[in-house]
Design brief:
Length: about 230
């Protein structure tokens, strides 16, 4: 009888410890996820989505920096779904559908920072790439010209070298489109891990964005000084 009572007591104690430990871990994991999801520092909200991390300015209404890794495995050959731009669920301030309405009349595109073509492995990734937390107003000639060709270069570099780290963002003001600031500059930094090499670019956000992207290539240090970010 004593042995039975002993084993019952041990079972109850062990069950309590396991349950308490599991709940503690669940709470810690939830807190960690919340911290990774949204960090607010003054005007900047940092959000971690599946394929990219964005730092979004609540006052400018565009991302000042978006970063992601591009690898061979992430370049899926699937049909691209139609872009449906929408608010980032983690960021109510990014509900900018109305603000962008009629942007075509200004010859402005909804410019992806992390490209839609880098997010074709699932519908979820495609949807997240069209969150306004990943979008800045870009003049059409830039978005469909040098910016697009630089995106294509990034995919070629990832194909040849597997892993590349990319940062892209916007800076300054060229005016307003409703509540959204039109950035004066757009920039991108590419780190080719295999070669331990950086390629960096700064573009004026104008409708003169025709020509080849490489004429806008600059040093990484100059982009760091220009943006205040370290790469």
């Amino acid at each position: 009888m004593k042995k039975v009572l002993f084993f019952i007591v041990v079972f109850v104690v062990v069950s309590y410890i396991i349950t308490h430990y599991t709940k503690s871990n669940d709470v810690a994991a939830q807190q960690t996820t919340e911290q990774q999801t949204t960090e607010v520092s003054g005007d900047i909200v940092k959000i971690v989505n599946t394929n990219y991390t964005t730092s979004f300015s609540k006052s400018l209404k565009y991302p000042v920096k978006v970063e992601w890794w591009l690898t061979k495995a992430k370049m899926c050959i699937v049909d691209r779904q139609e872009d449906h731009f929408c608010a980032d669920p983690k960021l109510p301030e990014s509900d900018l559908v109305i603000d962008y309405k009629g942007c075509g009349k200004l010859k402005i595109d909804r410019g992806h920072m992390c490209p839609s073509a880098d997010n074709r492995c699932s519908e979820t990734l495609q949807t997240e790439s069209c969150y306004f937390s990943n979008v800045a107003p870009q003049y059409a000639n830039l978005n469909r010209g040098k910016w697009l060709r630089l995106e294509e270069l990034s995919r070629k570099l990832a194909t040849a070298n597997d892993s590349i780290h990319i940062w892209a963002g916007s800076k300054g003001s060229e005016g307003k489109m409703n509540s959204v600031t039109i950035p004066r500059y757009c920039w991108k930094v590419i780190y080719i891990k295999k070669l331990n090499k950086y390629r960096s670019f700064v573009f004026e956000n104008t409708n003169n964005g025709v020509g080849e992207y490489f004429v806008n290539e600059v040093t990484k240090d100059s982009v760091e000084r220009f943006t205040g970010f370290k790469f």
